[in-house]
Amino acid sequence: MTTDHGYPAVRMYVAGAWCQGETGRTAPVVDPATEEVIGDVPLATPADLDRALDAAATGFEVWRATPVAERTRVLHAAADLIAERADAIGRIATLEQGKPLAESTGEARRTADTLRWHADDARRAYGRVIPSAPGTVLTVRREPLGPVAAFTPWNFPVGGPNRKISSALAAGCSIVIKASEETPATAMELVRCYADAGLPPGVLNLVFGEPAEVSEHLISSPVTRLVAFTGSVPVGKLLAGRAGQVMKPSLMELGGHAPVIVCADADPVRAARRAAGAKWANAGQVCTSPSRFLVHESVAEEFTAAFVEAAEAVTVGNGLDAGTRMGPLANERRVEAVRRLTADAVARGAKIRTGGERLDRPGYFFAPTVLTDVPEEAELMSEEPFGPLAPVVPFRDLDEALAIANSLPYGLAAYGFTDSAATAERLADSLQAGILSLNHCGGSVHEAPSGGVKDSGYGREGGPEALDAYLVTKRVSHLLVP
Ligand code: NAD
Asked: pLDDT digit string (tens) for 358-390?
């Protein structure tokens, strides 16, 4: 069933069945491009969550005992369905999140590939045999950790939930995932691909609810063995603290405030064009979005002019319209946040070179914005904008740029532009970040790990490291002659 907007009726998925929740309590889902309510999302009660936990406990026993070849087959079948349905899934993602259709469908297609990567990596969760004494076999085995409690945000409505689900399932774990209540139908359609691929009941359970209630319930349950979260630093700290109280490991993919260092020897126009391409993606609502542009003073004006030109060439509009390059922000909270950061910077002396305002139309639209003369004490220089704001700050030498770049408690992504191999190596050695891109601002790839340092969290998603958090390392020494 769908609404007039082509938006499906959202359901939770528990123990292999689609359900509405015990009390029928719901919250509205809003299209950020129109501010219209397009549907609603069911909210779980504690009893619903208990059913999901029971299902995950049973599902874990079934899934861990399933031969790895069969697990891989089911995961590949789910990936094929995601790829087949990418256009439909992408349209729903755009309706509820706002990003342009090309970004949403591209995200769905990449998600299928990520799942294929994890499906194959399931076969490579090797242990090892350690040389030992005659008559003794000393091995290290890697076993699935157990049922996972996962929480994902709204900015990557397909890829975000899938990173948790595909890693957990590839490792042999079951999962209860609370995807964002702001993008629930995309998560539902993603989960439907796994269900239709033949995943046994209980292995994957999808719930929605009041976030604090759900996380408290799932984390404190003795059933769950890992807490996996993507979202803001404050909420991450809260959940990691709660997990620590009940001695559960956690995987924390939190925010950042990515510096982009443009050195004197880089081509400033090329750097501006590449950085701008990444800046406006998802309207800047990406944890790795380039967000502090530190440019050598000798090329700062040339860089800024090219960046402003790129910003002004961006077509802002409804993500469903052909030709839209940047959609609305995902919700009113983000508009308020970027407005506050802009006003604070201007009050402290910053100049708006382009943008700086909410667009005068329904929807959560904010213009691509470039600011210069932003003092270091402006909130924008220390608070992740998570929106289309680009402050450009000139620097005199690399020591100064590195000091500014590393001055924040975050360390997720960082970017550098230079034509010198020696400078590139210095950046690689010195930047405090889990992800460094040199001479480009491209996104993550499933073959390589992503994750942060400092307040940006711990653990890695992507690459062979992705399964680490979901596996227990067990030492077994076996004396052959009793
Ligand atoms: P928020 O801190 O309220 O929520 C972030 C996410 O955490 C949401 O999905 C929310 O549902 C969830 N959440 C909130 N409280 C929770 C709780 N007690 N238990 C479990 N989940 C909980 O922020 P927001 O307004 O949605 O987004 C604002 C900020 O969050 C952004 O500025 C950005 O820094 C950060 N963020 C980061 C990412 C990321 O990919 N790292 C994604 C989305 C948001």
From this structure: 999 999 999 999 999 999 999 999 999 999 999
Q: Which of 103, 181, 253, 461 is catalytic?
A: 253
The model's pTM? 0.97
Residues with a CB atom less than 6 Å from ligand 1: 151, 153-155, 180, 211-212, 215, 230-232, 235, 238-239, 253-255, 287, 333, 384, 386
| Contacts for 311 with CB less than 8 Å, ≥ 6 apart | 276, 280, 354, 355, 368, 369, 370, 390
CATH 3.40.309.10 fits 258-445, yes or no: yes
Give residue 6's pLDDT: 83
* Residues ≥6 apart with Cβ < 8 Å to 19: 11, 12, 13, 42, 48
User: Which of 232, 331, 454 to probe ligand 1 with, by most ligand atoms within 8 A of CB?
Assistant: 232
Looking at residue 179, what is its pLDDT? 98
Of 283, 290, 287, the C-alpha closest to 338 is: 283
CATH superfamily, domain at 12-254+455-475? Aldehyde Dehydrogenase; Chain A, domain 1 (3.40.605.10)
Note the residue count of the chain: 482
- For residue 316, CA distances in Å to 5, 46, 183, 321 come to 21, 42, 21, 10
